[in-house]
Task: structure prediction
Amino acid sequence: MADVIAFLIKHFYDLDACPAPSDLGQILEDIGFSDLEINQALMLLEVLANSPEVAETRYSSGAMRVYHHEELDALPHDVINLLYFLDRAEAINGEQREFVVHALAHLPAEDITVDMAKVLTLLVLWAHKSELPALIGAELMMALHGKAVMH
Result:
């Protein structure tokens, strides 16, 4: 699924620039992506397209996200640490973080990695037309190419 997301980010300015889901599915199939990858990506895009607008402002309430024991069992510590870092650096807001957590929770355990969390973060930021600090954005983009180093 990460390859499909990478393709979308590279070839479409934002979520609004994507073709209709049926057309996009056909484009992705013609390129050679698997049905599973296409369906997962289209499902995420549908959720993002139907979610309420995310406020552009970042919150700085000092509140801390407490993870449920089931989330702690499912999410590796390095993924939780990444999300904490992105939240504290104000690269993502609470709603965006929750989208990433929810999307990760629906993946097989072996696919829940820091790189996948970075790719999903890029997806939600791309869909919401959000800007982020250049150094953090560059690090997240490296996950699309398999060269991520920040953990």
